[in-house]
Specification:
This protein has about 300 residues and is mainly α. Among the domains are: about 1-30; about 45-100, no CATH class; about 110-190, no CATH class; about 270-295, no CATH class. It is built from 13 helices and 2 strands. The protein has helices spanning about 1-10, 10-30, 55-75, 80-100, 100-105, 115-120, 125-130, 145-150, 160-185, 190-205, 225-235, 260-280, 285-295; strands spanning about 45-50, 50-55. The protein has a two-stranded antiparallel ribbon with strand order 1-2. Strand 1 (about 45-50) and strand 2 (about 50-55) form a beta hairpin. It is flat.
Amino acid sequence: MAVIGRIRKRVGLLIGFVGASMILFILGDLVTSNTGLLQRNSDVIGEINGEKIHYQEFEKRVEKFTENYKANTKSENVDQNAMDMLRDQSWQQFVTEMTLGKQYEQLGLSCSDEELFDMCTGKNPHPQVKQAFTDPKTGVFDSKNVVKFLKDLPNRDENIQRQWKTFEDAMRDERIANKYKDLVKNSLFVTSAEAKRNYDDAQRNASVHFARLDVNVIADSTVKVEDSDLSAYYSANKDKYKQAETIRKIEYITFDVTPSADDQASVEKFINERRAEFASSTDDAAVCKLKQRYTI
């Protein structure tokens, strides 16, 4: 009774201890789980140039590419090979935006609406625009047909508007990329002195005589390796074999779950009993009920 009395006196402390233990258990689960409060990067699928790519934004890009693919192919089904290609294109677009796109912004490279319009109706239209609006009968491209199409575009189907918007974005990105390539190409040049030196180097001939001593001809018994030699070699080359990731060794066993003879006999007995019930029944509805009742 004295023990029970002491427990009653300390029941508040006991409840507080249990409550604190439960709180610590819940917090520990939140911290260690992938959906915890400290794990906000569980949906990150990659990192490009220091910027994280999240699963949702990647899937939105894939859906956009998929819709364009369906519209271009006029098909509602996308096979696995095409889906893999669309996912690769989506990722490559992220790579371009996060790498070259940053360079475009720093250099102030852009493509204005006027420039884009000139790519559709100017003297040198984009090859795809020229192909799409060339009269198949005469083989002549008329920019007036492009202007008429653009004027009627707000009244056309939403799918056509979306396809044209995607096409315009692709033309704009292509023009900016070409500007960057031209900028890099024009910034590189070779002086006359460099060209002459390269020509002279290409025309220069030399005769070389050398002797080769194979280490295999040296007997191992004539060479003595000291512990200091091994230590020096280890110190000089240990960084070559440094592991960036932690290596773990896992040991495991597997158990094959196979039915016993009793299990097989029990199933065989069950099937034979059901067969008798199905064979003796003449009511289709009753047979269906039996099937639903004895579905394994």
